[in-house]
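In the design runs reported in the main text, the only information available to the sequence generator was the tokenized backbone. The following block is the verbatim input for one such run; it is reproduced so that readers can re-run the procedure and compare outputs position by position.
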């Protein structure tokens, strides 16, 4: 039908809204090439609204109008690459939040963000306002270079964005130069992951007393304390805020906490572990947590 329009009305303009929708990538290029060929032969003009990486790759930069930020024509091949990466990696929600925020935080999981927010609330830390409504990206345990690529995509849309990338301990051997980018601060936990800072006996006792109810609280607490004594080094139980090699290399999210809650008979999923953080008192929060909150605040203050 589109080709028929071109043949019936030479020297006309045709506006197409996402002609690539629901088409296989091979078909996207085939249809695009055919439309351009016929348009050229019939002296017609095509104006296409698209999110297709295929169509963008197949179009000269100076013929692409980007609506990321202020509408503007692209100038160089590298500009086209930036737009293509943004289309691939930046969600509609990211775009909305980018209108309000210039700082972005990258963490390994949603629970990391939720724990940081609860700790900031308890400490009355200056990072709390950002953590309550952030431009935040869940790296979902993928290689940290994925977060760096997302940051570059955001910068293609808004050049003054800055950010912080908070890495678990299992990435401590990854060289910073492989992740660093202008405006992106790299922060690393000394302990294996965020959940390791939840292994505080007094906090777990308080959490279970609230979660189990009056009748089941005492048996649950006793089972939890017995589990910790049996499975953790004595020093990690007696001085939970100390520097312990065991907590630096053991993944609490995958091993300690699931086993503990099975032992006490209280089902709690990994994305609910932040509730343990919410039960902490100031003196139960590891000093490194305040250090990381300071780092996040300093990195994102650059955006102010």
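Verbatim output:
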């Amino acid at each position: 039908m589109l080709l028929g329009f071109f043949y019936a009305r030479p020297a006309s303009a045709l506006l197409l809204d996402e002609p690539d929708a629901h088409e296989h990538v091979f078909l996207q290029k085939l249809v695009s090439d055919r439309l351009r060929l016929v348009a050229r032969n019939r002296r017609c003009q095509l104006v296409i609204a698209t999110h297709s990486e295929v169509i963008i790759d197949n179009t000269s930069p100076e013929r692409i109008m980007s609506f990321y930020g202020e509408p503007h024509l692209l100038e160089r091949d590298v500009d086209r690459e930036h737009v293509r990466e943004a289309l691939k990696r930046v969600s509609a929600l990211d775009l909305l939040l980018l209108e309000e925020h210039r700082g972005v935080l990258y963490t390994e999981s949603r629970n990391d963000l939720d724990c940081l927010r609860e700790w900031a609330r308890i400490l009355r830390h200056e990072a709390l306002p950002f953590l309550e409504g952030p431009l935040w990206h869940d790296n979902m345990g993928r290689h940290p270079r994925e977060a760096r690529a997302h940051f570059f995509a955001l910068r293609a849309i808004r050049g003054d964005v800055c950010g912080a990338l908070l890495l678990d301990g299992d990435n401590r051997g990854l060289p910073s130069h492989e992740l660093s980018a202008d405006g992106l601060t790299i922060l690393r936990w000394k302990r294996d992951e965020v959940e390791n800072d939840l292994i505080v006996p007094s906090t777990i006792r308080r959490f279970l007393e609230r979660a189990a109810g009056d009748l089941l609280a005492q048996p649950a607490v006793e089972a939890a304390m017995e589990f910790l004594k049996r499975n953790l080094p004595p020093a990690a139980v007696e001085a939970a805020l100390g520097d312990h090699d065991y907590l630096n290399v053991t993944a609490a999210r995958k091993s300690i906490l699931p086993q503990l809650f099975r032992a006490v008979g209280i089902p709690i999923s990994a994305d609910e572990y932040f509730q343990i953080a919410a039960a902490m008192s100031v003196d139960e929060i590891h000093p490194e947590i305040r250090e990381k909150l300071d780092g996040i605040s300093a990195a994102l203050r650059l955006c102010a």
